[in-house]
Amino acid sequence: MNAILFSIATFFSTFFGGLFALKHNDRLHFILSFTAGVLIGVVSFDILPEIFDLAHEHAIDPMNAMIALVTGFLFFHSLEKFVLIHHSQESAYTSHHHPQVGFLSALALAGHSFMDGVGIGLGFQVSPSVGAIVAIAVIAHDFCDGLNTVSLMLVHHNTKRRALAMLLLDASTPVLGAASTLAFHLPPMGLMIYLGFFAGFLLYIGAADVLPEAHSKAPPATTLRLIALTCLGAVFIFTAVHLAG
What we know:
Blueprint: H1 2-23, H2 28-58, H3 63-90, H4 99-126, H5 128-155, H6 160-180, H7 188-216, H8 223-244
Helix pairs in contact: 1-4, 1-5, 1-6, 2-5, 2-7, 2-8, 3-7, 4-5, 4-6, 4-7, 5-6, 5-8
């Protein structure tokens, strides 16, 4: 039950992050710059170390997880391009700002949030102290998960109502993820592959989608500030993860 209680705290953290993005969508390029740093930081300082820790602890070759990472990156890239090509064949609208792209990006983040909840649940399967440490790290960066979800929906021309709906989904998935661990024990290899796949998703969203978008319409005078915000997003995750550890 401790896992469920901690996961409920992630719901509020995610939700308030999304509300922040809704209120300040007129400064979306600044938010997106920070978002890109957060996503890259989550992959680099949270997911990948977890994969290598699992590999070391259970004497498993991490190569399968790295293959899953590349597969996740290329799968999302291919899926996004397929959506754009299909849409351009049906209408004269050829901009890469398409609501379905935002929906797919937000859905990938919801998948990551579900794994956050799974991580909390599995942490408590090890011990209460490990579970609490994992939960604190998740709560710290789930504020940005909510911000990321809303930012991605809005930048791809979704309505605020649809962005709010995806925010509620993203906020709910950690609770569902934590609850799911009451019914199963995922083997280490399965968890590594799952983490690797979603690391690829998030790496693509951060580096190939969000970061270019942040700079695409920003005035040249803001470039240094945008770069600084991206670095700050990565540093924020690094600090949150290491303080929790």
